[in-house]
């Protein structure tokens, strides 16, 4: 049986405060699945990068990694950059099974949660 790990993969930003929701997401994931190691990774501006995050999971004994793009949609970064990075990770870690999940923003349940939050925001802002 494979030891699975998860990388929550976000774009990154120059402002360190930008990562707070992603850190919260990782903490929520860890609370829901304490048996699955989880780490964050960023495409640019922040650390760790995807290769470093993968290496940290391999160092923990993971031989299967799922990369979950924490993006609202699949743009150039996910389509072009991620496959190149994944190929490099697979070369660096022979035998590591790497899977890229759909971007979170394309998952129906995530869209439903965002729609509910948007409706709640509008209702909270409505005059009495």
Describe this structure in words.
This protein is α/β, with parallel strands linked by helices and 128 residues long. The protein has a single domain (4-125), classed as Rossmann fold (3-Layer(aba) Sandwich). Helices cover 45% and strands 17% of the residues. The protein contains four helices and four strands; from the N terminus they run βαβαβαβα. The protein has helices at 20-32, 50-59, 76-92, 108-125; strands at 4-10, 38-42, 64-69, 97-100. It has a four-stranded parallel beta sheet with strand order 2-1-3-4, with helices on both faces. α2 runs parallel beside α3.
Please supply descriptive tags for the structure shown above.
128 residues; four-stranded parallel beta sheet; alpha/beta; single chain; 45% helix
Fraction in helix: 40-55%
Tell the overall outline: elongated
Distance between the termini: 57 Å
CATH C-level class: Alpha Beta
Task: Tell me the Rg in angstroms.
Answer: 16 Å
What's the total number of strands?
A: 4
Major β-sheet profile: 4 strands, parallel
Secondary structure tally, helices: 4
Strand content: 15-25%
The CATH architecture would be 3-Layer(aba) Sandwich
Structural class, from helix and strand content? Answer: alpha/beta
Round the mean pLDDT to the nearest integer and report it: 94
Concise structural overview:
By secondary structure, this protein is an alpha/beta fold. Helix content is 45%, strand content 17%.
Secondary structure topology:
Layout: E1 4-10, H1 20-32, E2 38-42, H2 50-59, E3 64-69, H3 76-92, E4 97-100, H4 108-125
Parallel strand pairs: 1-2, 1-3, 3-4
Helix pairs in contact: 2-3
